[in-house]
Amino acid sequence: MYRRAILIAATAFGIVGCSDSTGPGSTPDPPTDWRSIGVIQPGFPVKVILAPDTVAVNARFDATVNSFGSSTCTIPAGVDLILTENSAVITPYDRGPGGQAICTGDVAPRPHPVELQFTVAGVATIEVIGYRFTGQGAVLTSVEHSIVVQP
Question: What is the pLDDT of residue 32?
Fold first, then answer.
């Protein structure tokens, strides 16, 4: 069900491209590529956030944020990161072709590696913001992961 919802929504967002730009008054082809906030689908077999459960205070560590999209057309295109002493808010971005591109209908994780560091002992939170597709279309949503930061 999730795969079908993403494919339908991806088509609506121009992720799966096809256009007819012939004739007066027609809409021109989209740009040669697009960049948008990534699709995160809580409940997929692959988690949205891959990060340790425990880290040491002031230690740098790697985390991965997975967006989801066509394995042939969705390319990770960076993240926005807001990092504080005990939280990280991450928004993944994906890039893909526009115009007449034909993309496969599979949905695969698109990993976005991120290096993080928390500077206060206690519990820290990683929050990822992205689109989730529902029966009513795309909505912004978030997923959280808590990490114990040891002294």
Answer: 60
pLDDT digits (tens, 9 = 90+) for 38-91: 999 877 889 999 999 999 999 999 999 999 999 888 999 999 999 999 999 999
pTM of the predicted protein model: 0.77
61 - beta bridge partners?
Answer: 116
For 136, counting Cβ atoms within 10 Å of its Cβ (0-12 exposed, 13-18 middle, 19+ buried), the class is exposed
* Residue for token pair 């891959």: 50
By C-alpha distance, which of 27, 150, 32, 141 is closest to 92? 141
The C-alpha atoms of residue 8 and residue 3 are separated, in whole angstroms, by: 9
CA 96 to chain centre: 13
Strand partners, 129: 142
**Measured distance CA(44)–CA(26) in Å, rounded:** 38
Domain regions of the chain by residue span:
2-150
Sign of CA dihedral 23, 28, 32, 35: negative
